[in-house]
Amino acid sequence: MPTTDAIVMLRAGHKEIRRLIRSYRADRDPGVVEKFLRALTVYTYIEREGMYPRVSVLAPETELTIVAFREEHHIAEILAAELQDMRPEEIAFDAKACLLMDIVERHMDAEDHMWFPQVRASVGRKELREIGAWMTRLAERAPQRPCRPDQKKIWDTVAA
How far apart are the first and last CA of the chain? Predict the structure, then answer.
């Protein structure tokens, strides 16, 4: 079975996350937020642990972009962890969910339109397939729920 390359995998993740965002905006179903948070948690984990480290070595000219993306992940992770701990009836739940979704959409747009084309131009198909295979393995052990960035070291120790 051929391995999908990393960019194709991440674009598929974008498609699913965008579908969940549209669904939430259409009917404000808190159950969709739970699915969104799970998809986002897995996605950011495989991107942070799989894609970013390898691309920073293979395409060092994208390193500043990766640094900015890591900071966006950090902010999104804080909001996601806070949202995970909220009850849907809390007054700020919808505002926090919408803000997080806006940040995530902006991040995905930057990847889709700017970063992925740079990576595709700099990194070979073989390497992208290897990164994709690694991300597939990472997804199997990825956390399913957001946790605060300060808890990551604890989670990474447990997951290893």
Answer: 27
Confidence of residue 151 (pLDDT cuts 50, 70, 90): low
Residue 61: how many other CB atoms lie within 10 Å: 10
CA distance 82 to 95: 12
Q: Which residue has the tokens 């965002």?
A: 21
**Residue bearing tokens 């179903």:** 29
Longest dimension (CA), the chain: 49
Which whole number is the average pLDDT over 112-118? 97
Residue 113 is given by DSSP the state I
157 has pLDDT over 50: no
Q: What is the mean pLDDT of residues 18-28?
A: 98
**Whole-number Å distance between alpha carbons of 75 and 71:** 6
